[in-house]
Specification:
Blueprint (H helix, E strand, L loop, with lengths): L17 H6 L27 E6 L15 E4 L5 H9 L3 E6 L9 H17 L4 E4 L10 H20 L4 E7 L12 H7 L2 E5 L19 H13 L7 E6 L1 E6 L2 E2 L5 E2 L16 E4 H7 L8 E3 L4 E7 L5 E5 L3 H14 L3 E5 L10 H12 L4
Parallel strand pairs: 1-2, 1-15, 2-3, 3-4, 4-5, 5-6, 6-7, 7-15
Antiparallel strand pairs: 8-11, 8-14, 9-10, 12-13, 13-14
Helix pairs in contact: 3-4, 6-8
The site of one 2-acetamido-2-deoxy-beta-D-glucopyranose (NAG) has 2 residues, from loops.
């Protein structure tokens, strides 16, 4: 799928002072819509039944996203007006990333000031909301615990008031069971924003058992995470399933005959071992490596995920765990069963969007696997 540049007007020079103007609190770029059709600068107001939520981390790959299905693009990269115009032309929301050290927003005044800055920035860039990506440690009953819930409430109120139709979402770990010491008021937060993006990946961030490599998003554990969110009283329509478009490459201290890869100890927030012992790899890199690897693609029927082994130049054996259309489709069947709001991935830019025919097939299959 290609994209022409005609959604963007030539000459963005009238906005070149935007940064400066924002910093002094004036949005004089108002009316400087960068799109060829000024209507494309209007916020998106429609909601669609099935959310397909994409994290954009930079580059031009967005031109090849499956725009027939994408509903929201979260900007985890520098602002690109062409992407804004294009997303709007497809009826997709384009939202900011929001992150702030919680100690800085405990005081109500500093919290409102931060929220106002975000709303101003979103308006100046013709955006449709914000994704709160606050993955910090919070202890129950602490000042930060209450400040975080208040932040979500006040951010949602401000965005909904100032940008009609806008969307405020919050990223949570794969389970509400205080993963990585994120002891948040999950039910409160879910009620107070539009929906939670559940990051069903990095599920080995705290390995409490033996230090062996495992799947990034093992099937049972992933589904149990959603069941927990629902059991504590969160409406399934407030949950978007996040799947990984990347894997983990572990160097094995020892690989047993039954494929158990022992990994070095890397403590994380109270656990002795963690996926921090591994290295994150994009799906496109995995696809280039798997066929020529020592083992080829193997399938773990307990974790319901593919993996493979290879040897590096030093002769060390590695085990790589990842997700592919087969493992993702299994999880996707639960979106309907549990009544979730949709799906999304971290992140949209890890696939090979080149002209290579095999890559094109693999990339199309990853997008297709998202749909129930
Ligand atoms: C969570 O937040 C909701 C909404 O603000 C509030 O009613 C509830 O008391 C909070 N629960 C806890 C345990 O803090
Ligand atoms: C790897 O093998 C699979 C299965 O045989 C095949 O479909 C795919 O095209 C191969 N990938 C490459 C890059 O050759
Ligand atoms: C996964 O869950 C199913 C259903 O609860 C159970 O029958 C199965 O034993 C579980 N598998 C693992 C590996 O825990």
């Amino acid at each position: 799928m290609g994209v022409s540049a005609d959604t963007v007007r030539m000459g963005l020079s009238d906005c070149s002072l935007l940064g400066l103007l924002l910093s002094i609190g004036v949005s004089a770029c108002w009316g400087g819509c960068p799109c060829s059709d000024p209507a494309l600068c209007q916020p998106i107001r429609d909601t669609r039944d099935f959310e397909v939520y994409v994290f954009y981390v930079g580059g031009e790959n967005w031109k090849n996203y499956d725009w027939a299905h994408v509903t929201t693009v979260a900007l985890f990269a520098p602002y690109d007006p062409e992407l804004m115009c294009f997303a709007h032309s497809k009826g997709a929301r384009f939202v900011l990333k929001g992150d702030i050290p919680l100690k800085d927003i405990v005081a109500p005044d500093s919290r409102s000031a931060w929220i106002e800055q975000q709303v101003t920035l979103a308006k100046a860039q013709y955006m449709d909301g914000i994704n709160l990506d606050i993955e910090q440690t919070v202890l129950p009953g602490s000042e930060e615990y209450y400040a975080l819930t208040a932040l979500v409430k006040e951010t949602t109120e401000a965005f909904h008031r100032e940008i009609p139709g806008s969307q405020v979402t919050f990223d949570v770990a794969w389970s509400p069971a205080w993963i990585d010491l994120r002891c948040y008021n999950y039910t409160g937060i879910a009620d107070l924003c539009d929906f939670l993006f559940v990051m069903s990946y990095d599920e080995q961030s705290q390995i409490w058992t033996e230090c062996i490599a495992g799947a990034n998003a093992p099937f049972n554990q992933t589904i149990q995470g959603y069941e927990k969110f629902i059991n504590i009283g969160i409406d399934p329509k407030k949950l978007v399933m996040g799947v990984p478009w990347y894997g983990y490459d572990y160097s094995c201290l020892h690989l047993t005959e039954d494929n158990q890869c022992k990994i070095e100890k890397k403590p994380f927030r109270g656990a002795e071992c963690s996926d921090a012992a591994g290295r994150q790899v994009p799906y496109r890199t995995i696809m280039k490596q798997v066929n020529a690897s020592l083992s080829g693609r193997l399938w773990d029927d307990v974790q319901k995920a593919p993996f493979y082994h290879y040897k590096d130049e030093k002769g060390d054996t590695h085990q790589v765990w990842y997700d592919d259309p087969e493992s993702i489709s299994l999880k996707v069947t639960y979106i309907k069963k549990l009544g979730l709001r949709g799906i999304g991935m971290w992140n949209g830019d890890t696939l090979d969007y080149s002209n290579d025919p095999i890559a094109q097939q693999q990339t199309a299959a990853m997008w297709k696997a998202l749909l129930p």
